[in-house]
Amino acid sequence: MRSATTFLMFQGQANEAIQQYKEWFTDLTVQSLSYMEDSQQVAMAVMDLKGLKIMVNDSVIKHDFTFTPATSIFIECETLEEIINLTAQVLEGGKALMPLGHYGFSEQFAWIEDRFGVSWQFTYNLK
After folding, report:
1. Which of 68, 32, 73, 16 is nearest to 50 (CA)?
2. Mean pLDDT of 48-52
3. DSSP annotation of 70
4. Which domain of life is it from (predicted)?
5. How far apart are alpha carbons 16 and 21 in whole angstroms?
6. Does the pLDDT of residue 25 top 90, yes or no?
7. Is residue 50 within 8 Å of residue 96, measured between CB atoms?
8. Torsion of CA 59, 62, 68, 73, to 10 degrees
9. Which pTM value belongs to this model?
């Protein structure tokens, strides 16, 4: 096996999602980005979030499915303020699968589906 990478496939919203994720996550960098010919649709992009490689594209094939919350990006927050801010930002236009709270396994935890349908889990622990 050469590598394993998170892959996010959109249907015309990839560029918008990339721009939004750059605002939410200041540590996110776009390593490469190419567009389909004569279009703003993303042919392929590669992002890095704290060492997590994320590939992103717009599918040229229309699908009857969207993202499933069974696949999510798990973020360990450094501060209580960070988890509160991220949760509030990502929740805007999205929905809480598990609202920010104490669930026993984490001091604070939230599972949010963003407005694009991508699932994010945020956790914060004092230790």
Report:
1. 73
2. 96
3. T
4. Bacteria
5. 9
6. yes
7. no
8. 10
9. 0.86
Q: Are residues 44 and 76 in the same domain?
A: no
User: In this structure, is residue 66 part of a structural domain?
Assistant: no
- At residue 112, the 3 state secondary structure works out as strand
At 82, give phi and psi (nearest 5°).
Answer: -60, -45
The Cα-based distances of 33 to 45, 81, 107, 110, 118 in angstroms read 4, 31, 37, 30, 19
Which backbone phi and psi does 87 adopt, to 5 degrees?
-60, -45
Residue 76 and residue 120 share a domain: yes
- 105: three-class secondary structure by DSSP: coil
Q: Are 75 and 26 in contact (CB under 8 A)?
A: no
Please give the pLDDT value at position 99.
Answer: 97
Q: How many domains does the chain have?
A: 2
With helix as H, strand as E and coil as C, how does 5-48 read? CEEEEECCCHHHHHHHHHHHCCCEEEEEEEECCCCCCEEEEEEE
Tokens at 97, concatenated: 């699968």
- Three-state secondary-structure class, residue 59: coil
